[in-house]
Amino acid sequence: MRFIALALLLAASAAHAQVEVDKAWARATPPGAPVAGGYVTIRNKGSTPERLIGASSSAAAKVELHVHLKEGEIVKMRQVPAYDIPANATFELKPGGAHLMFVQIARPFKEGEKVPVKLRFEKAGEVSVDFQVGRLGDTAPPAHKH
To answer: How far is CA 21 from the centre of its chain?
Structure first.
């Protein structure tokens, strides 16, 4: 029984090491805004596909996975159950595309703050990351301050 538990722990650790998260950021929100968008670059360094299957944050009642879809001349946002991340590939959540939607935010996101987020992967499990809050309307991650 101990051997099985150890084997499962080692497998989970190896899967976790295969996922690398970078450039996690969110836009500042105006007072009273109920939602905020979050963006991040995910690298799957493994030889098998991975899936981001959920996220959570103490800064919001829930965090949903969303995509933008163009239907004719209209762009719509839709919630999706997961993002597929191919083996040895990078998947980018960015404005105008796939993104995290922080729903019922506890308070406005302010420039310079960090928002704690737990990303849930199918194989790698939970990965904790701080999202840096940039300016309202930013289209790219805030510059790192030294």
So the answer is: 9
